[in-house]
C-alpha cells in the first residue's frame, strides 16, 4: 500500500515590489545626491588652475567609486561593448589634447574635469540604473531640483532680489547667483522636459494623479524659465519640446501645443509675468545678426578667437584649459574685458570672459579635429540610438516610453544648448548625469530599457 505524503508547500514568490525595493535602489543615492547637491551655493573663488570642488562633485565621485567597487568585488556587469566604445572614445581625444599641449601639466586639470563629466559620471549612471524605475528615480530628482530652483527664481523676480538685468535686480537665478546666470534656467529646463515626458506618456500602473500633476509642473516651470531671460536656454527648450511632441504622434502633438500656447498666453499675457522684458528679450533673438547687443557681439568675437586657435593647430588644438591662455592673441580689439554681474546677494563684479560660450568651438579650439570627432561621434551615437529605441518602444507598446521621451528630450536640449554655452559652473556635473541617462536608454540591454 502506497503511503501518501503531504504535498510540499508551493514556493513563495518574491513580490515584485520587494525585488525592486530599497535593497536594489540604494546605489542610486549618490547619483540622487549629485543632482540635489547642485543647488548648494558655494562661494566663488578667483581664477584657478583646478576648478572648484563642490558637494555635487564629491557625490559624483562617490558614485564612480561605488561602481568600481561593485565591479571589482561583487562581479556586477560591466558596460556593454557598445556603451564602452561610445562613452570611452571621448577620453582618447581628451588624452591627446593633454599630452600634445604646450604645457601638459597646465592641461591636466582640464583632462580630469572632462573625464569626470563626459566619461566617468555617464558611465556611473549607466551602471547604477538597473531598470526604468531607477531611471525615473533619477529624473524625479531633476524635477525636484527644478521646482526648488524655480520657486526661488520666481521669488527673486517678485521681490526684486535677483541678479541685475537692465538696471533692475529681477533676473531669476535661483541659488546659483549672478556668476552663473544660466544655472537655474538649465535645471528648470531639465525638470520641465522630464515632467512633459511623464505627462505625454504616463508609465503603466502609475497613479491616476501622476499625469495631470506632471502636466501642471511642466507648465508651471515655464514661468521661472521665462524669468531667467536666457535666450539660449529658451531656444534649446523649445527645440527639445517640439522634438518630443513630434515623437509622441501628430494628434497628441497638436493638442499639447495648443495647451502650451494657451498656458503661455495666460501666464505671460494675462497675468503680465515679465511680459515687457520677455518681449524685448525675444525681439533681441531676431536681431542677433542685424543688430546684435553687446553680449552677442562679444560672443561672436569669442567664436572667432576659437576658430583662430583651431587654425593654428587643426589636429590637436591648443590643449585643454588653453583657451584663456591664447585668447589675447586671437581676440579682436572690440572684445569686452568682461561681463558685469551683481545682485542676488553679490556685489558688483567684473566677470572675465574665459570661454567661447559654445561647447563645440571650445572643443575644436582646445582639442582640434581629433577631439571634436571623438566627442561628436559619441554624442551622435547616443542621440541616434535613443531616438531609434524610442521608436521601437512606441511601436511595441513598451511601458517605458516616458523614459525614452525624457532621454531624447534631454539629449536634444543639451546638444542645442551647447551652441550657446559650454561647461563651467555648478551645473556642469548635471551634464554628465543627463548624458548618462540618454546613454542608458540608447545603449542598455533591451530587457532593461523595456522594463516598466
State the gist of this model.
The chain is mostly helical. The protein has helices at 16-19, 22-25, 29-36, 55-73, 81-99, 104-128, 132-159, 183-200, 210-220, 222-227, 231-248, 250-270, 275-285, 294-312, 323-326, 359-396, 401-417, 428-443, 446-449; strands at 163-165, 168-171, 339-343, 346-351. The radius of gyration is 23 Å and the shape is globular.
Number of discrete domains: 1
Structural class, from helix and strand content? mainly alpha
Taken as a percent bin, the fraction of beta residues is: under 5%
Number of E strands: 4
* Element string (H = helix, E = strand): HHHHHHHEEHHHHHHHHEEHHHH
In helices, the fraction of residues equals 55-70%
Mean pLDDT: 83
Cα-atom Rg, whole angstroms?
23 Å
Which geometry do the CA atoms define? globular
Comma- or semicolon-separated keywords:
452 residues, mainly alpha, two-stranded antiparallel sheet, two-stranded antiparallel ribbon, 19 helices, 4 strands, 64% helix, 4% strand, globular
Could you describe the 3D structure shown?
The structure is a single chain. The protein has 452 residues and is mainly α. It has one domain. The chain is built from 19 helices and four strands. It has helices at residues 16-19, 22-25, 29-36, 55-73, 81-99, 104-128, 132-159, 183-200, 210-220, 222-227, 231-248, 250-270, 275-285, 294-312, 323-326, 359-396, 401-417, 428-443, 446-449; strands at 163-165, 168-171, 339-343, 346-351. It has a two-stranded antiparallel ribbon. A two-stranded antiparallel sheet has the order 3-4. Strand 3 and strand 4 (346-351) form a beta hairpin. Helix 3 runs antiparallel to helix 4, helix 7 (132-159) packs across helix 8 and helix 8 (183-200) packs antiparallel against helix 9. The longest helix has 38 residues, at 359-396. Mean pLDDT is 83; it is low at 1-20.
